[in-house]
Amino acid sequence: MKKISIMSVGLCAALALASCGTSKESAYRKAFEKAQAQEAQQAQQAFVNDKVYTALSTEIDAVETLLAEAEKVIATECPDVAENYASSLERLKQQVAELRNALDARHAAGNLTAESTVDTKSLKTEIDATVAEAKAAQQATKDYQALYAAFEKQVDLMRSDIDETESAVSEECPNVAENFATR
Question: What distance in Å separates the CA atoms of residue 180 and residue 183, rounded to the nearest whole number?
Fold first, then answer.
């Protein structure tokens, strides 16, 4: 009987020790799997961060290209008013640079997600509006110049008529020519 009780105590002890080893092994396995999952999640986040950065950088590149084209259009098609839009174009360049710097900072911090965006639409709208305004100002300047040229032509015609009239009065009416010239 004593033997059976000693054997039962030994068997219980062996089972207890065996279950401790299994629980330690299980805890290590869980910690290992958790670390692997975190590593995979971090790798996925880095991948998404880089992909989103590339896509958003492409959007900003498109705005920079649009702005460079706008500068060329204003310089070539709107030469009379181009200097009036230099400060607007500089301000737009600054806004694009700020947008890029903010994107670079978010990328460096790893904060970009699939839902991240950059507001390029408002910049594109403002660039298009600036070009349209410059073109309208250039057209207004051309219209004014044409109107002024027509006005100068009319003034020259009137001067010519006045000169002809003075000449005719001087030749045909010499006695009143002096009075006519003073009026």
Answer: 5
CA–CA separation, 123 vs 93, rounded Å? 10
Rounded to an integer, the average pLDDT of 152-174 is: 85
Spatial distance between the Cα atoms of 138 and 39, rounded to a whole number of angstroms: 60
Asked if residues 90 and 144 have their Cβ atoms less than 8 Å apart, the reply is: no
Question: In the structure encoding, which two tokens stand for residue 18, read together?
Answer: 């065996």
Q: Rounded to an integer, what distance in angstroms lies between the CA atom of residue 20 and that of residue 158?
A: 117
Give the tens place of pLDDT for each residue, 22-52.
566 788 888 878 877 788 777 778 777 899 9
Residue 16 vs residues 3, 19, 130: alpha-carbon distances, Å: 20, 5, 81
**Phi and psi for 118 in degrees, rounded to 5?**
-130, 145
Average pLDDT value for residue range 160-165: 84
> Alpha-carbon torsion 125, 127, 130, 136, what sign?
negative
Other C-beta atoms lying within 10 Å of the C-beta of residue 127 = 22
Q: Are 110 and 49 in contact (CB under 8 A)?
A: yes
Residue 111 is given by DSSP the state: -
**pLDDT at residue 89, rounded to an integer:** 97
DSSP state, residue 173:
-
Question: Scanning the structure block, which residue is given the tokens 């009780």?
Answer: 5
Q: pTM of the entire structure?
A: 0.67
